[in-house]
Sequence to fold (570 residues):
Amino acid sequence: MSEQTSVVEQAALPQEEQNGGKRRTMTLNMGPQHPSTHGVLRVVLDLDGEVIRKAVADIGFLHTGIEKQCEARTWQQVVPLTDRVDYLANLSNNLAYCLAVEKLLQMEIPRRAQWMRVMLTELTRINSHLVWLGTHALDIGAMTMFFYCFRERENILRLFEMFSGQRLMTSYFRIGGLALEAPRGWQNAVGKFIRAFPKSIEQYENLLNANPIWMERTKGVAHLTLDDMLNLGVTGPMIRAAGLAWDIRKDEPYSSYQEFDFQVPTRTESDVYARFQVRMDELRESTKIVIQALEGMPEGKFQAEAPGVVLPERESMKTQMEALIYHFKIITEGFRVPPGEAYVSVEAPRGELGYYVVSDGATNPYRVFMRTPSFGNLIALGPMLQDTLIADSIAGLGSMDFVLGDTDR
Amino acid sequence: MLTEELQQIPHVQAIAAMPGALQEASVQHGEVTLIIDPSRIVAVCRLLHDAHGAERLSGLTGLDWYPMEPRFEVVYLIHSVRNRYRLKLKCRLAGENPEIDSVYSVWRAADWYEREVFDLFGVTFRNHPNLQRILMPDDWQGHPLRKDFPVHGHKYSYRAE
Fold:
C-alpha cells in the first residue's frame, strides 16, 4: 500500500489528517504495577497510535508519611527512618540528615569519620548505579547485564554488612560521627573489591558500548533541553548529561570532599545514551575516590567529642558515673538541639538530596523536609515523554533512575 | 534594616529595594533567610529568576506553627547554579484559609511541590494549573503534616470502642 505511512510520519502530520482524517486518542494506564516503573508509579498516557501525546505521572502509592513520623521521634531515632526514604542510597540519606543536625548543633566531626563517610557514600553510589544499570538494561532487553551488576552489588552489600551488620538498611551514620568503629580487616575487604571493580566496568562497557541494539534504543531518545531541566528541577546525572558540570560535591563541598581528587563527567547530548555514559564515568570516579579514601584514611576517633549527644563508650560507662547518666539521658529523653533551621544538600546517586531541618529546641525535630532527587526528576517525566514513541518511554523512564520510596517518602 | 553582611549581597539588596516586599532578613548558620510579603512573592521570584540567575527552585515546603499566628510559613529553597548562591524565602500565612499565589509561572518545578504543600498542609495556591492532592488519596480528609493532625491518623484508635 502506497498510502501507508510510518508512525513517526503520522505523528508529523497535522492532527486533522492523522488516521485518515479521524483523530482518535487512547488513554493507557501504565502501572501502578508495571515491571519497568521499578516500583509503584502510575503513568497515564494519551496515545495517538504509538505516539504519546501526553504523559501524566501519578505518584503517592508508596507514601508512608516519613516526614510526619520524624516529628514524633528523637533526633537520633530519625536516622533509621532516613534509610527507608531511598533504599538504594541509604547512606546518602543518613549523611544529609546528620550534616543538617550537626550544622544546627555546630558540631565538629573528626576527620576520620568524615573520610569514612565519604568512602561509604561512594560505595553507595556504586551500589545504586549498579542496580540502575542492571534494571535499565533488563528493560531494554539486555538480560545478562542484570546478573553481572547484581554479582558486583552483592559484594558491596557484604561490605555494608561487615561495617554495620545490615545489608540494606545500614543506619551506619549517627549524629556526631559513625555508629561503630570500622570492623577489623575492612581495608582488605574494601581494597579487594574496589581494585577488581574497574575490570567489571570494562566488562559492562564491552557488552553495551558498541552494541547496535543498545545504541538504537538509547541514542537520541527522551531528549530534554538544559533550560527545561533547570526550570523543572532536574538534578544529578540527568542534568550533567545535558552539559552542566554541576556537582554539589565540587560546588558546595561537604564532609571533606574538597580533599579528594575527582572529575565531574558531563555529556551534551541529553539523551538516554548520554545519561548512561555519565553514570558509567561516575562509577569510575567513585572508584577513584574510594581508593583515595582507602589509602589515605586518617587515624583518629570515629565520633565527635560531644558528651550528651554522642553515646559514651561502653568501657567508660562501667567506670564513670557521668557516662552512665549521659547514656541514660540520651536513650530515654534524647538530646536537645538549639532552635533554628538548616538546609543541607548532598550529591546523592540520583541528584540533589537536601534535608531542611527545623528545631524549636526540643528533643525531637519540629519539621524535617526531604528534598529528594527522584521527586524533582520525576516532574520532568511529562515534558520528556511528550511526542515520543511508546516503546521509547521504557528507555526514558529507566534513564531517570528514580526510586519510588524516594519520591513518595 | 539590613545588616552590613546582608547589604553586600546583590540579590538581597535588589529585593530590599522593592517597595513593600521584604519584611525581615536574617542569616543563620551561613544561610540567608528573607521573609517576604505573600502578595509580592511572584514578583520577587520573577526578579530573582530573570535578573539574578536563580534558575532553580530547589524545593518548596511548609511549616505549621500551630497554635501561633500567623500559623503557616511557605518556604522557598532557591538556588542559582550560575551565581552559586542559595537563598531561603518565607511567606507567613494566617491559619484561616491560607492562600498564596503560585510561582509556577517562574519555575515549572513548583507544580508538584505546591501540590504537595496543598496536600499535606492545606495551603491553597492561586493560579496553579492543577491543584490536586499528590501524595494522599483523593478522598482523604484533613492535612497530615498539620500539627493538629495526630501521627497515627484519625482512623485507628488504641482505646476500646
Summary: The longest helix of chain B spans residues 110-121. The longest strand of chain B covers residues 56-64.
